Amino acid sequence: MESITIKDIAKICGVGVSTVSRAINNHPDINKETKAMIMDVIKQHNYIPNNSARNLKRLDSNAIAVLIKGISNPFFSNMIKIFEREIKEKKYSFILQHVDDKEDEIDVAIELIKEKKLKGIVFLGGHFSHPIEKLEQLKVPFVLSTIGTTQKLDKTICSSVSVDDFEESYKMVNYLCSLGHTKIATITAPMDDESIGNLRYNGYISALKNNGIEIQENLIRIMKAELYSYSMENGYAVTKELLESGEDFTAIYAISDSIAIGACKAIFDSGKRVPEDYSVVGFDGLDIAHYYNPSITTIRQPVEEMAEATIKILFDVIRKKKSAQHRTFQGELVIGNSVKSLK
Amino acid sequence: MESITIKDIAKICGVGVSTVSRAINNHPDINKETKAMIMDVIKQHNYIPNNSARNLKRLDSNAIAVLIKGISNPFFSNMIKIFEREIKEKKYSFILQHVDDKEDEIDVAIELIKEKKLKGIVFLGGHFSHPIEKLEQLKVPFVLSTIGTTQKLDKTICSSVSVDDFEESYKMVNYLCSLGHTKIATITAPMDDESIGNLRYNGYISALKNNGIEIQENLIRIMKAELYSYSMENGYAVTKELLESGEDFTAIYAISDSIAIGACKAIFDSGKRVPEDYSVVGFDGLDIAHYYNPSITTIRQPVEEMAEATIKILFDVIRKKKSAQHRTFQGELVIGNSVKSLK
After folding, report:
1. Closest CA–CA distance from residue B211 to any residue of chain A (Å)
2. Do domains B6-49 and B61-164+302-330 have the same CATH topology?
3. Residue A114: CB partners within 8 Å, gap ≥ 6?
4. Class for domain B61-164+302-330, per CATH?
5. Considering all CA atoms of chain B, what is the largest pairwise distance in Å, rounded to the nearest integer?
6. Which Gene3D superfamilies would you find in this protein's record (chains A, B) (predicted)?
7. What is the pLDDT of residue B25?
8. What does the pLDDT read at residue B191?
């Protein structure tokens, strides 16, 4: 079946193309009955109003791409929805591009810029350590959103939105210390991590030190490389091993809520309880941290505000209202039922 | 900064373009030191090997798009990963396109086909009720993946992969009946739903009838339209209302695991327990159903196999090995700790 055109519709209706166009575009200058008749014919013939086709095309030359690492991470779900809403509101089209763990996001971005004539880019999640010469190849404004980086980025060439992963992590571990916990295990990223994992780990170390607690190497546990990082199954596997090792500890600080949930499950499966036997805390503030039983004490990142700020900054730069900006949001310590006070 | 080309690299190295190309492409026919020197220069100048650029371009004319409704639904996360892996393995590029709740997926698909010269499409999730004339405008093979439809689709024009949502739902409710439950509430989709919601609801009704249990209208609860459908918050709100209504029931059958988790939370917040006071079951077999406390009894859909079959069928049709195919997978009743036997 050939696609039907606006000319065919005009012919069937016995009117001119411009009249059909007026009907489609809700133009006031058209007879009501004529419009109704035209819309009927359009419906009967499943004609796709050029409208939407035109929109899509028009939008396509004004595209923003969101490059995401870790598409299955529920932390990003709400952000993606807000990105989409905000970008479409500005009459730009929204391209969601998944970047594989092994892919270089800058290479993907450079290709996308060429292909889609992008006006801007959001990098969401993942590590981010690229030489400045490489970043300079990105000829459009871009924002790093919720990407922790230990690298000294040239703050004039890109914008960023995040929480202070070090400070928030410090806040969480300091909270555990304030309740009398001194034997606090952590489930964290590999030591060569240069991203949020490293920053959150440093917050843990710093909080312990400032509370006069000695660092115990045996309580520092690294996510397993062969399992998805930051996942429930990873938290489960690491905690199972920790429990079986017989180490003495009273609390687990998992650097993500998903890891924390896996840790809880491992504790339950060993016949112990949370928080009566072990306290467990997470990071991120996922919905499931609230819905879990017990609810998980966590650091809530204000994802909605962060997503909105990401797009606002991107458009400020695109429209040359402002140069690169860097916004750090406050996380919120959300007290659940997964921590027992030892005082 | 201008992008550096392969010619520039060749010039700097004092070799021919073909030598640089051999170095990049790991061609055996090149002196080791020359290769090392070239790779050094490439690194220094942050030259993006044409390789990846070429790959991307070549792939782009062989693209498969996955159109997804409900990107934040964790049920789809694992499927997306497998789609991507399988599509890339076949040297096709993978385009993930989010379709808004209010958008018409066929319109989006038609535009994508034109723009990207798609070779095939996967529709993932959502309702699917389009007149055949409209479907015929899709000029490339497509597969409906995990899309329940009550509509009589012309089985020759498209392929499908799913579980039998009616049968699996029947299986779950029949299981509750077998344990002595007769007052089984359900949290389901609006009655005008023409998709999995409707099929799963019919399975519930049919199982009750076949067990000689009278249908109680007051125990049939509909997801709230103002909240995300199939979400934890929706399950929570509906269950809270159900509990406050004072209706007498012993079990809740939620038509998704996320709803079931929200239901559990509402029960906990009312001071009751799962399964001691109320049994709760879900549908889908999400990871979190296993990690939840208590683990949720559910119907596990074999998402990995279904995702693989989706791509296999799509390529069979693209390569004209086969015409449209329809595969129905068996779900698995996974017994968790969220159900109490009343016998």
Report:
1. 33
2. no
3. none
4. alpha beta
5. 87
6. 3.40.50.2300, lambda repressor-like DNA-binding domains (1.10.260.40)
7. 67
8. 87
pLDDT tens per residue, range A269-286 = 999 999 999 999 999 999
Q: Which CATH architecture has domain A62-163+302-330?
A: 3-Layer(aba) Sandwich (3.40)
3-class SS at B220? strand
Delimit the domains of chain B by residue range. 6-49, 61-164+302-330, 166-301
pLDDT (0 to 100) of residue A60 = 47
pLDDT of residue B54: 40
Contacts of B294 in chain A (CB under 8 A): 293
Q: Enumerate the residues of chain A whose CB falls inside 8 A of the CB of residue B154.
A: none
Interface test with B, best of A71, A269, A291 (most B CBs within 10 A): A291
Query: For residue A206, with 0-12 CB atoms within 10 Å meaning exposed, 13-18 middle and 19 or more buried, which class applies?
Result: middle
Which helix or strand (DSSP H or E) is residue A147 part of?
A: none
* Angstrom distance (rounded) from CA B59 to CA A328: 39
**What is the rounded CA–CA span in Å between residue B48 and residue B53?**
8
Which residue in the block uniquely carries the two structure tokens 């069937």?
Answer: A12
Burial class (CB in 10 A: 0-12, 13-18, 19+), A248: exposed
The superfamily (CATH) of domain A166-301 is Response regulator (3.40.50.2300)
Question: How much is the pLDDT for A265?
Answer: 98
Q: State how far the Cα of B124 lies from the Cα of B130, in Å rounded to an integer.
A: 15
CA B101 to chain centre: 15
Token couple for A27: 């133009």
The residue of chain A nearest to residue B295, with distances taken between CA atoms, is A265
A137 vs B1, B107, B261: nearest CB: B1
Number of CB pairs < 8 Å for A and B? 106
Spatial CA neighbour of B230 closest among B160, B125, B332, B302? B125
Do A80 and B97 count as a contact with CB atoms less than 8 A apart? no
C-alpha distances out from residue B159 to B49, B142, B284, B312, B323, Å:
39, 6, 21, 11, 8
Backbone angles phi, psi at A337, to 5 degrees: -110, 25
Q: pLDDT digit string (tens) for B202-228?
A: 999 999 999 999 999 999 999 999 998
CATH for B6-49 is 1.10.260.40
What is the spatial distance between Cα A333 and Cα A285, in angstroms, rounded to a whole number? 9
Model pLDDT, residue B52: 43
Per-residue DSSP letter, A215: P
CB contact under 8 Å between A288 and B136, yes or no, is no
Q: Classify burial at B161, counting beta carbons within 10 Å of its beta carbon; exposed 0-12, middle 13-18, buried 19 or more.
A: buried
Q: Which residue has the higher pLDDT, B323 or A194?
A: B323
* CATH class entry, domain A6-56: mainly alpha
What value of ipTM does the predicted structure carry?
Answer: 0.80
* Cα distance between residue B77 and residue B81, in whole Å: 7
Give the nearest chain A residue to B112 (CA atoms).
Answer: A56
Q: Among B286, B311, B329, B299, which Cα is nearest to B80's?
A: B311
Q: Which residue of A has its CA nearest to B97?
A: A96
Q: What is the largest CA-CA distance in chain A?
A: 87
